[in-house]
């Protein structure tokens, strides 16, 4: 027993310099330690800190009593809206009214009572030329901007961001291969969890697709089960999601905001409950959001990963030695009085 006590004491004395040294080393640890909480705090803050925007009342969503197209925020959308509002609608309206007037005029003017002896005319060269040429000219007037718009839609500019959109019964998943390949699963937000800033009923989702403003976003659209369709009216974007097939479309939103869409291909029982919410933000906000999802911006990939890893290692090393130093120092410190 005595020898054991002596051994302990000897050990304590032998360790004392080590303990002292450990305590000497310890002050370095607290100095390094604050770095750890700061870095940790940043990481901790970055994740929940991303502030999603609230929807704008008349933008990117249907409005009560609305019957026109949603305000467009892409060049394709502007062209298509012009085509619809300024070209097709006037032509359709004029043509429908013209044909209706002709019918009314014929029905009244040439009714049996007013016109007892019907004309036996069967040919009129002028009128035959007119009713052949006029529709051809009208179709040409429509065809030129129509084909130009179609070509523009398929001529995809170089993509700044690529998103793989996958339809599922009955939700969407989004993958960001350029940003570390993270994946989002986006579901309808249930009514009991929905707040006004999330968006309208049946359109609000739990995970929004976030994209940068004024950047070409390329969508690779596919499906895991049946045919769905990814549609966002304010971008004039609609693309079928077909299992086993990669469809491609794109958009370049020119205005920050929150834009809603829906699955637009009848895909089963909950087809009406798989909305789409696209949040268009500044480049800086986009980078912030990507990091909050654990992704990284292209280019900064290796460059940022290395410095990020280095401080992490530097922080980790003192953090590991500090508790070790404490562990060594404390038993020695307590064992000494205990032995005395
Ligand atoms: Cu669907």
UniProtKB/TrEMBL annotation:
One of its GO terms (biological process) is ATP synthesis coupled electron transport. One of its GO terms (cellular component) is plasma membrane. It is a multi-pass membrane protein. It is found in: Cell membrane; Membrane. One of its GO terms (molecular function) is copper ion binding. It holds the Pfam family COX2. Its main location: membrane. Residues 315-325 have a biased composition (Low complexity). Residues 315-340 are annotated as: Disordered. Keywords: Copper, Electron transport, Membrane, Metal-binding, Oxidoreductase, Respiratory chain, Signal, Translocase, Transmembrane, Transmembrane helix, Transport. The keyword Disulfide bond does not apply. The keyword Chloroplast does not apply. Residues 158-292 form the Cytochrome oxidase subunit II copper A binding domain. Belongs to the cytochrome c oxidase subunit 2 family. This is Cytochrome c oxidase subunit 2. It comes from Sphingomonas montanisoli. The lineage of its organism: Bacteria, Pseudomonadati, Pseudomonadota, Alphaproteobacteria, Sphingomonadales. The gene is coxB.
């Amino acid at each position: 027993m005595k020898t054991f006590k002596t051994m302990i004491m000897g050990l304590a004395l032998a360790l004392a310099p080590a303990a002292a040294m450990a305590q000497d080393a310890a002050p370095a640890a607290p100095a390094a330690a604050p770095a750890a909480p700061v870095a940790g705090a940043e990481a901790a803050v970055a994740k929940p800190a991303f502030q999603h925007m609230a929807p704008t009342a008349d933008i990117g969503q249907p409005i009560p009593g609305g019957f026109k197209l949603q305000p467009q925020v892409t060049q394709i959308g502007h062209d298509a809206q012009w085509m619809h509002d300024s070209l097709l609608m006037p032509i359709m309206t004029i043509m429908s009214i013209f044909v209706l007037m002709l019918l009314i005029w014929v029905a009244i003017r040439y009714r049996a009572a007013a016109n007892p002896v019907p004309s036996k005319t069967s040919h009129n060269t002028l009128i035959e030329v007119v009713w052949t040429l006029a529709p051809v000219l009208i179709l040409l007037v429509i065809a030129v901007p129509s084909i130009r718009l179609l070509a523009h839609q398929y001529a995809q500019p170089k993509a700044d961001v690529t998103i793989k959109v996958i339809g599922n019964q009955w939700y969407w998943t989004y993958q960001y291969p350029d940003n570390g390949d993270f994946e989002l699963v986006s579901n309808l937000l249930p009514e009991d969890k929905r707040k006004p800033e999330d968006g309208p009923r049946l359109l609000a989702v739990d995970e929004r697709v976030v994209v940068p403003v004024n950047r070409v976003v390329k969508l690779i659209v596919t499906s895991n089960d049946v045919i769905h369709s990814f549609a966002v009216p304010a971008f004039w974007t609609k693309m079928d999601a077909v299992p086993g097939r990669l469809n491609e479309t794109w958009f370049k939103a020119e205005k920050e905001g929150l834009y809603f869409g829906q699955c637009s291909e009848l895909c089963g029982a909950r087809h009406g409950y798989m909305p789409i919410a696209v949040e268009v933000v500044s480049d800086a906000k986009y980078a912030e959001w990507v990091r909050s999802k654990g992704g990284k911006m292209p280019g900064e990939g290796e460059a940022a990963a290395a410095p990020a890893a280095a401080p992490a290692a530097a922080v980790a090393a003192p953090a590991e030695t500090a508790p070790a130093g404490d562990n060594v120092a404390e038993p020695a410190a307590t064992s000494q009085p205990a032995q005395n």
